[in-house]
Amino acid sequence: MKCPGCGMDMKAGFLQTVKIVAFNKTRHKISMTPKDEVDTILARKALTGTDFPGFICKECGLVVFDYRNDLPRL
Length: 74
Ligand SMILES: [Zn+2]
Known about the structure:
By secondary structure, this protein is an all-beta fold.
């Protein structure tokens, strides 16, 4: 996959988390509860964690991952 930022080849891998992860339109100070239609809880498995297949660009730092196809932690 080509990086949408710089066009270099991205490396496949997994974005792994052990906490709640959210994408929010604005920065929430405390709660990750969605406030806007853009707001999306990506992972809420605080005890087991979540792994997402994706790609990383080591040149510019972008990470692209598929939040709808998360995997159970090994
Ligand atoms: Zn890049």
